Amino acid sequence: MSLFDLIILGGGHAGIEAAYCSSQFGLKVAIITLPNIGLASAPCNPSIGGIGKGQVVKEIDALGGLMGILADYAGIQYRTLNESKGLAVQSTRIQIDKELYSKHAEEIIGKISNITVLRKKVMKISKEENTFKVACDEEKVFYSKKLIVTAGTFLGGKLHCGNSINIGGRIDQPASDTVNSLFDFNIKTTKRFKTGTPARIDKNSINFSKVEEQPSDDSVRNMHLWHNSSRFSKQVSCFLTRTNSKTLELIRINKDKSPMYNGQITAVGARYCPSIEDKAYRYPDKDIHHVFLEPEGLDLDSFYPSGISTSLPKDIQESFIRTIDGLENAQILKHGYAVEYDVMDTSHLTLSLEHKTVPGLYFAGQINGTSGYEEAAGQGLVAGFNAGLSLLSLERLILNRNQSYIGLMIDDLVSSDRDEPYRLFTARSENRLFLREDNAFLRMYHYRKLLNLHTNHDFMLEKINFEYELCKNWLNSLQSDGNWKIWLNSINYVQNDVPPKDILKDPNLDPRHILKNILEFFNIEFSSDVIVSVAIDTKYQGYIDKALEQFESMQKLENKKLSLDKLLQSKNVSFECKQRIKKFEPKTFGQLQRLAGIRPATLAVVASDAL
Amino acid sequence: MGPLTNTASNYLNLLNNEDIIIACATPSSGPMGISIIRISGLFDVNQFNSMIKISGPMGPLKPRKSTMIHVLDPNTSLSLDTGLATYFPAPNSFTGESVMELSLHGNPRLIEKIIDLFIVFYNLRHAEPGEFTLRAYKNKKLNLSQVEGLDLLLHATTQPLIELSQYMLSGELQNEFFNFKLCFDNHQASIDILTDFSEDIGEETGFNNLFKSWNQIKEYVTDFYNRSLVPMDHLIKPNIVLFGPPNAGKSTLFNILLGYKRSLVSTEAGTTRDYIKESFFYDHNEFLLIDTAGIRESDNSLESEGIVFTHKNLRDAFVRVLIFSAINFSSEDFNNFIKLGSPSLIIITHVDKNSVSPLILSNINKLSLKIPVIFVDLLIDSFDKNLFGKIILADLISYYSYKPIVSNRQRIEIIKIYKLMLYYDSLIKSDNGTDMALLSNEFRALRSSANGLIGLVNVDEILGHIFNNFCIGK
Known about the structure:
By secondary structure, chain A is α+β, with helices and mostly antiparallel strands.
């Protein structure tokens, strides 16, 4: 009998992260994944990071996860997004060579002796007392004490491209059974979501003279904390082009052929990751939309045109793509499609992503209704560590929503039922001045310490946090004495009595350069990672404290209990509001406030009533 | 403040209280034609059968229909009074609870006795000031600005103010606030889109949306702010101050305006040393008319003190009326008084209307602002009270043309929002790129103030302040 401590179903971004993390406890771990798909494949956009998501990758990295390392190994174009919008909301995005990414994932996971990768199709999952029984094809059966399901879009997957419907998890992959027939015990309600991907274009057919080049930025820091600034792969460019009125007109006149708009797909897609059909029909006055042309790999001919995901029939895809500048002669390698799939109702999960009524069973990744590799990996990490901690009877790892995007995401997922795919972005955070990439090592430090692991990573993490404290203390103790005045003079600063800490708050100066400059003057050395995060933390400290204070006082109203009966009977609540309230059954004022489509009048009524 | 004044926490307790309350809703200081007793709570109308007997064969009380009844003494079953009862079953009533109103003969002692019998016999409780309105608010029959409108309606002394209070009571002001709130949602969305999705929509569009939505908010805030600037005392209790040199005839005019001799009048200058105020009525508006000590250099300490009061009254006045005598007219004095009081109306006394001296006319024509002038003859008896009233009322109405915001709570919130707006405006226009996270943080502060304005806050702190002002029975 093959008994594992932990079996992970799925070898995607959530699955490998769960395996990589849980294996650090020395447990016997297995990944069961479909044959013919490499680990950590990238079926949609070939990039890691982005706004909010870059922060997640750095949190994963600081917590001892894998994603940052893989992104660096496979990175072929680096960018910092939001560079002109302040230091807090900047994020790194790395275009990856998807073949390299998967290859490195296979290599790293393959080298870990306590992880077994099983290429099987899962047929049935049952529970015998406290053990999960996973029955696979070829009559193989595996047992485990804990089970993490990271099935992505494969459960009940259904593909749409024009009027053709195929059963499958991805374009060339079969689907698994539906959630309800896969488990022979009740995991409660599931629902259907939808996502989509654009056509892939042959790079030899792109007219690069008509598109804007966006080269890789060499100054961007690598994702992994302990990687220096050098690149692991050859760097290439991405390209920007735009749709025009002809493109949108074609899409609009073929509305009846779009599975999403003719009723063929009933599942809900993400508002924040709209298909080109969504854009065309929702914003009838807007014809110009950005299209980013992103290479999928150094040795691949295919380009990913970001921004035009579609499920229109193949011939229409072809003709609308060819209206776009630079794509007049585009050859399509693979057509775009939409996929409908089963997702878990995450309100049945705890903050450690364990099922509330089936102990030992965890869910992570796209099956939880999220979109994005980073979101998936973040959940894989939380599920992996927690399954491990639970096996060792240790305290669970719960990330606070005010200290991490991962914690924010999981809190959002389990505290309310979502009716569309969940994507992370900075606006979801009440504390975005603090949840930055540069201080991820600081924010994640005490969480990593709780795991009580003593790896090289832990040693390095302790060291950088020690340096951070040292640097901060030094800055705090710096007197505005003669030396300080000399330095101020050296940069020709107008105000010659500004204290050392306050100069970092000057909105006209970049605090990172100033602190570096000060340290050089006083002949003190710190790593640039430490300097950057001390500088930015000092700049924002007052604001962060104020924001948290406001947050606390808002919590008072936020946590007010609601009476559903009263709300639904109230004459002062509109019919539409009542419909949404009935559906989501918000229990607190905060949850009500976060529901889309609740009118301010309703909130006012509730706020004044909820005494 | 009497013993019935409640603190905010008392009102919080009252909010959770489910007693049946009773009070007289009409003035009870003396005999009246009718007094109305109001009862509110969750009751069954039949439970009062021992005290309320329907006169004649009309069956039980019908909702919202007046029925003739006898009020009985439950101890003796003898009739105490005959009147009308109207029953409003919950939730279709002022308070949202069941309400009964008894219209009885307006003898204060009789009404007291009937209320006491209800309290003792049915275990009712005497209502606290504003408690009926508090229940209406609690049961969402009124929102916060409607409650404030109701308060104003009960206390307003002029027609324009009554009109304004109806505007608040109808909920239209609250609608303005809600529309204002929607602009905040728009701007927040534009911040978030620019931060999180600028690759999707493009930087330029993102920034355009940011500024467009911000300008909308600025327009609202500036408008609310200007509407809050009107000195409120003037609107709630407009006072008219008569001022001028001694012996110009201020007290004589004062008495004529009142219609009776209230101020001592003599030919001796400096007779009025204190100030006297009385209500002056014109076209269903009540003003406070103030007669002041004539302003001059004086050795008399009592008179000097009176002159100090005059200056204070002038500062606090809504309308300043300069009374100036044509006798021994001095251009220098006249212009000094204009400067001192910037009057809205000038009355020249002791003048023959048919032959006003050229000196006076030229002085009036030289005034930089056009100020209405009334000439009064030697006896002052021919003074046109209506013309005076018309000019004062026109002045008052001009203040209302742009719907001033008169609730103290709202004004405080709006001034807070205005200050935050100015600060935020400097951030959003910063030349050194826009720090979106910082912007968003500061906007949150602004937003929570806006929530305060429409009552989207913990109302604990403001309850006492608002409801204290109400009389018992409302």
